[in-house]
User: Which sequence fits this backbone?
């Protein structure tokens, strides 16, 4: 490892623009003639649109146009799609309703877009939006999945009887039932997974520009995957053919999944730009973000784990109902199925696993992937149940887990996943040591002396990252391949540009990708630039989500670097009159091993472009590309331990220590990896103790639609974290990387709730464990 | 419309502001200074913090006309002659930012915090005083570390100067 190469703690290259106010986010963009858009949204959770009167609004100052869903339909703009086909267990396809970018006849959640108002200024557009008169006929609404499935519940889409979208299963059900019937002990737990709002700090925004002379569209947008946005808007929404649509995702202020999807606003602003003849910019305000960014989680589940007399797990059975909201968002079907139930074997050797998942429509914001996407829900279920089982069996939670760990790899679970490597005992050891797990009883006694209830909780999570290979996900219903592309351009002076289909919105790719290049080509990081986020520059890409940029995106760069190196060595061998197998690349030079003969990197590059003296038949230039498709998912895993103190008078819980020991495989930049864990753990603690998305059950109004009402984690809600890593390289990609973006949010909620329930001696506690909820659980005993 | 004139980052600027125009809108839209961000509508997130006459202010809670005649420092004006302010430097060195969206407000709030507390700042105080600045990426761990590092460095520099 050099000072800049793989494994080095390099401060980020991209920081300077952000710390000096030079970041360029979508809302910062200004183009000539740009106007401002405001969406008129449904104030009702469920209603028929009887009439729309825009006459006085249209006459207001500055108003350029007010457009509706009928015009959108006239222009042939398509309906929003769900990109992953999941079939019910009877073989029937999903009962998917229609989602129009602008609602024409029926609105199905508070925030459903009905009209777009374009005006000279944002204030004028807002004023005109308020002057629009829409006559609604209110319909009964339903907000929870359980209520939506009942007889007589309001039917939200004609396609979905009882609002059921699909009833899906995985695993070996009959074997599971037999094992449970014969078990020495069965732990049985009902578990809710609370609905969350992702809350990237940058609200979503888009700027649509139509150039009629070229019949060309440009879309600036807050996207985690601009190429997917272009593909979907072109192939399904009929906005424009791909060669006439450029999508640019400039600096993006956090995503956490919520900026994967192609929302109505991107489509409508592009279309409105053509209709009105002006560039149209829309930026969400925060309440609009709460109402319309795809939400996360919202599961109701039961889990049963069966043990034999030796405390070995013989079966695991899960029944889940997932609330998908009013419409099926882009990946909504995959989150509670293939990203969830496939991880229910956890870190454990379980011969029999079965899960049944029903997904339902409700009159709420669409639900889709949020940091972890399915895997936090799986981890929470399994790890809450394991801790509960240990208490019921009267054994150490750590040792119950250790006894059931998978120790031989590869390991085929009964739920599709084939774990290719790991060392779960190593992360358990690292975490218990860092947390002084064995010393807990003394700390508990000391706290009791101060009138505090101290508790400790553990979670051993596993997840599947990379979200690949393409052939595998295709066979499971995915509408896209999940490879990644890269292009490495060595310029004539030897500087390097890497074009990647991954997208950085906080992850630090401009640094870590450059570290890889520095390691491989022996050049300084300051001579390496990373280009991403623009469909005109980067050929194609699948974007950043599922902790895939390292495992898949950087692997594509690595393969392209192999090809650059191979050609560079050929050129150097020719220039040095040596054999190419003797050429090594280091410290900015190509050297003949064991001699003092060398050619500087830049001189080799220049030779590629002057082409005066290249090997016979070699093409000029030095530029290589690659599409990398991994051979398996990667499987990050780890052990988290949380220790809390509860004040029994108030129910207020303080986290005394939080320890994370993760196995992410090989690591490019430990500083950045630690930062990812910090952020993920904070979001997980937020879910466990603070955050909850609450709808009024009668009206379907979102009651937690601002930072006044939704408890975002603040600095004084959180401790500093103790994070460390153990390493077993992933065998499924050339870099041995597993991915680190989501682990913190996956592993932490069960550790926190296990700690609090340990402290209060009651297991009846759902997230978020607010002081009120903890006090109630404590006093309900 | 009211004509206003203020000193922003050492440069005298003037412009027309509606009575309802917020300082942050004036900075972003009228002056094109987009380093100051808007992350919420309720003065909770702190992405818009600037300094007005030396004090940290959420520029979404102040009307532009109220800043008439004031000295305003934004994130764009914190570095001097290409040298990063110690707080900017500390955020860089301690990985105190990820997506960068909350960062301008964090840095401006931190600078004010250090001005008020000096090197006596401790972790608990930093966490309490960051109550008005929300970050979704970092879990605050490295933000707190950055602010403490900057406070220590600025305290040392002040001592050396005395």
Assistant:
């Amino acid at each position: 490892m050099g000072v800049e190469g793989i494994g080095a703690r390099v401060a980020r290259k991209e920081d300077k623009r952000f710390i000096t106010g030079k970041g360029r986010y979508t809302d910062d963009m200004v183009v000539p003639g740009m106007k401002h858009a405001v969406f008129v949204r449904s104030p009702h959770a469920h209603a028929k649109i009887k009439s729309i009167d825009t006459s006085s609004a249209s006459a207001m100052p500055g108003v350029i146009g007010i457009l509706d869903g009928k015009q959108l339909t006239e222009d042939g703009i398509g309906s929003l799609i769900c990109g992953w086909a999941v079939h019910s267990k009877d073989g029937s396809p999903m009962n998917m309703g229609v989602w129009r970018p602008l609602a024409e006849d029926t609105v199905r959640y508070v925030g459903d877009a009905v009209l777009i108002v374009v005006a000279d200024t944002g204030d004028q557009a807002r004023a005109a939006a308020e002057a629009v008169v829409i006559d609604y006929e209110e319909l009964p609404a339903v907000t929870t999945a359980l209520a939506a499935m009942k007889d007589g519940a309001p039917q939200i889409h004609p396609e979905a009887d009882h609002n059921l979208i699909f009833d899906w299963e995985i695993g070996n059900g009959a074997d599971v039932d037999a094992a449970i019937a014969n078990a020495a002990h069965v732990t049985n737990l009902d578990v809710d997974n609370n609905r969350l709002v992702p809350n990237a700090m940058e609200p979503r925004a888009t700027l649509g520009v139509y150039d009629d002379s070229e019949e060309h569209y440009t879309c600036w947008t807050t996207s985690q995957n601009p190429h997917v946005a272009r593909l979907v808007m072109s192939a399904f929404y009929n906005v424009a053919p791909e060669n006439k649509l450029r999508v640019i995702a400039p600096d993006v202020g956090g995503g956490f999944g919520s900026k994967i999807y192609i929302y109505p606003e991107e489509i409508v602003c592009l279309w409105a730009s053509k209709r009105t003849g002006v560039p149209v910019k829309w930026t969400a305000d925060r309440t609009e973000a709460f109402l319309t960014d795809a939400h996360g989680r919202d599961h109701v589940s039961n889990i049963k784990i069966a043990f034999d007399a030796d405390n070995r797990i013989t079966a695991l059975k899960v029944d889940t109902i997932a609330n998908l909201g009013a419409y099926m968002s882009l990946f909504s079907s995959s989150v509670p199925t293939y990203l969830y139930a496939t991880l229910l074997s956890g870190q454990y050797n379980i011969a029999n696993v079965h899960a049944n998942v029903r997904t339902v429509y409700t009159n709420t914001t669409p639900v889709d992937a949020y940091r972890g996407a399915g895997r936090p829900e799986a981890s929470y279920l399994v790890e809450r149940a394991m801790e509960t089982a240990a208490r019921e069996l009267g054994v150490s939670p750590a040792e119950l887990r250790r006894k059931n760990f998978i120790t031989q790899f590869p390991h085929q679970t009964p739920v599709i996943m084939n774990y290719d490597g790991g060392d779960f005992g190593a992360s358990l050891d690292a975490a218990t040591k860092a947390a002084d797990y064995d010393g807990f009883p003394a700390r508990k006694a000391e706290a009791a002396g101060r009138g505090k209830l101290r508790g400790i909780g553990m979670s051993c999570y596993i997840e599947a990252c990379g979200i690949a290979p393409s052939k595998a996900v295709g066979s499971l219903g995915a509408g896209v391949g999940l490879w990644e592309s890269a292009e490495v351009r060595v310029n004539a002076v030897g500087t390097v540009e890497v074009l990647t289909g991954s997208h950085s919105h906080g992850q630090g790719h401009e640094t870590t990708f450059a570290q890889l290049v520095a390691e491989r080509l022996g050049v300084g990081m300051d001579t390496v630039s990373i280009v991403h986020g623009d469909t005109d520059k980067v050929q194609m890409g699948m974007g950043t989500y599922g902790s895939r940029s390292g495992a898949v995106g950087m692997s594509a760069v690595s393969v392209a670097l192999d090809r650059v190196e191979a050609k560079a060595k050929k050129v150097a061998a020719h220039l040095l009159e040596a054999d190419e197998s003797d050429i090594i690349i280091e410290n900015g030079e190509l050297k003949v091993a064991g001699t003092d003969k060398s050619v500087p990197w830049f001189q080799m590059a220049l030779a590629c472009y002057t082409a005066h003296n290249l090997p016979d038949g070699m093409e000029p230039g030095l530029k290589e590309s690659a599409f990398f498709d991994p051979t398996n998912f990667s499987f990050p895993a780890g052990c988290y331990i949380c220790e809390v103190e509860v004040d029994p008078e108030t129910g207020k819980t303080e986290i005394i220590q939080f320890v994370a020991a993760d196995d992410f495989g090989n690591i490019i930049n430990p500083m950045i990896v630690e930062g990812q864990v910090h952020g993920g753990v904070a979001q997980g603690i937020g879910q466990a103790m603070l955050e909850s998305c609450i709808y009024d059950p009668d009206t379907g109004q979102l009651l937690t639609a601002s930072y006044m009402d939704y408890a975002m984690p603040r600095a004084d809600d959180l401790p500093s974290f103790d994070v460390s890593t153990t390493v077993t390289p992933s065998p499924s990609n050339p870099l041995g990387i597993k991915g680190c973006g989501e682990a913190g949010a996956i592993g932490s909620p069960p550790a926190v709730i296990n700690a609090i329930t340990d402290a209060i001696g009651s297991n009846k506690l759902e997230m978020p464990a607010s002081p009120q909820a903890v006090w109630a659980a404590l006093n309900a005993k | 419309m009211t004509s206003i004139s203020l000193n922003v980052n050492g440069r005298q600027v003037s412009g027309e502001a509606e009575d309802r125009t917020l300082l942050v809108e004036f900075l972003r839209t009228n002056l094109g200074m987009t380093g100051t961000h808007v992350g919420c509508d309720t003065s909770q997130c702190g992405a818009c913090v600037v300094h007005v006459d030396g004090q940290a202010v959420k520029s979404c809670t102040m009307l532009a006309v109220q800043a008439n005649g004031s000295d305003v420092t934004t994130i764009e004006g914190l570095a001097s002659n290409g040298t990063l302010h110690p707080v900017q430097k500390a955020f860089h060195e301690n990985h105190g930012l990820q997506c960068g969206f909350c960062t301008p407000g964090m840095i401006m709030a931190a600078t004010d915090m250090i001005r008020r507390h000096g090197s006596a700042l401790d972790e608990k105080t930093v966490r309490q005083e960051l109550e008005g600045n929300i970050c979704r990426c970092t879990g605050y761990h490295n933000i707190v570390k950055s602010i403490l590092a900057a406070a220590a460095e600025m305290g040392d520099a002040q001592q050396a100067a005395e």
Observations:
- Helices of chain B lie at 23-30, 86-93, 103-117, 123-129, 141-161.
- Chain B touches chain A through 57 residues (CB under 8 Å).
